[in-house]
Write a structure and sequence with these properties.
Blueprint: H1 5-22, H2 27-33, H3 47-75, H4 85-97, H5 100-111, H6 115-139, H7 143-151, H8 156-186, H9 199-207, H10 211-241
Helix pairs in contact: 1-10, 3-6, 3-8, 4-6, 5-6, 6-8, 7-8, 8-10, 9-10
């Protein structure tokens, strides 16, 4: 029997919290994974602070990407903005195909080490799914529905917010869900330029040939991605029922 989405999401959230707070209690397991290592639990920083910082970087970048992506997608679907549609699609596509590592390398001389280049990289990398789904969602609204709303005396702004956005909401949300989930994994590379993320134990494990460190970071990144994805699933299921 399949559990309801909200139970699934809450369950993953509990697992994430327990794993974050209890990683140090799994030393026996990691001793088995990496028997030749003197130290098997990453101790340069606590996992909770790394988790919170990782999530805040992704959250801030996602807010900016959502604002730009959805806003731009709406603008180029208006009659006066359709000429810019090919340009916007091209820029969004280039932003995701350009490797995040390359963005970091280019931004470090301008923004320095730390969170700045990481946030910029995540914004660029997260734009394409949001822009693409915004265009698809609004574009799939039946012209007859819009004409009916116009016939009822609704203005262009009213049609956008009361007709087009509600009908396109689930498609737009799916793009946001993809963007955020991808960026949770992508944010880990920020540790290479001094940002504090869950990539710290992964990088430390690779440098020191310590698979236990790498596994600890990878487990928490994976759990965070799954938990956030399930939370989005809950929002989509609730909006669908409405």
């Amino acid at each position: 029997m399949k559990l309801p989405s909200h139970w699934s999401a809450s369950g993953w959230l509990v697992v994430l919290i327990m794993a974050t707070l209890g990683m140090q209690y799994l030393e026996r397991f990691f001793r088995w994974v990496a028997p030749g290592q003197r130290q098997v639990i990453y101790q340069r920083d606590d996992f909770l602070s790394l988790m919170l910082n990782h999530a805040s970087l992704v959250g801030l970048a996602s807010i900016v990407a959502i604002t730009i992506g959805v806003g731009t997608g709406i603008l180029v679907t208006r009659a006066w903005g359709r000429d810019f549609l090919p340009t916007v699609s091209l820029i969004a596509s280039v932003g995701q195909t350009f490797p995040p590592v390359a963005v970091l390398a280019l931004c470090v001389p301008l923004l320095g080490f730390g969170a700045g280049p990481v946030i910029l990289s995540l914004i660029l990398y997260g734009l394409l799914p949001i822009v693409r789904n915004t265009l698809a969602g609004i574009g799939d609204v039946e012209p007859a529905v819009i004409e009916s709303a116009r016939g009822m005396g609704m203005s262009g702004t009213q049609i956008l917010w009361q007709v087009e956005i509600p009908l396109a909401f689930n498609v737009i949300l799916a793009g946001i869900r993809t963007s955020v989930t991808i960026n949770i994994a992508t944010a880990a590379i920020g540790s290479t330029i001094g940002a504090r993320t869950l990539g710290d134990p992964v990088i430390a494990g690779l440098i020191n040939n310590n698979i236990a460190y790498t596994l600890q970071g990878a487990i928490l990144i994976g759990l965070l991605a799954v938990t956030v994805d399930r939370l989005f699933e809950v929002v989509q299921s609730v909006s669908t029922r409405r």
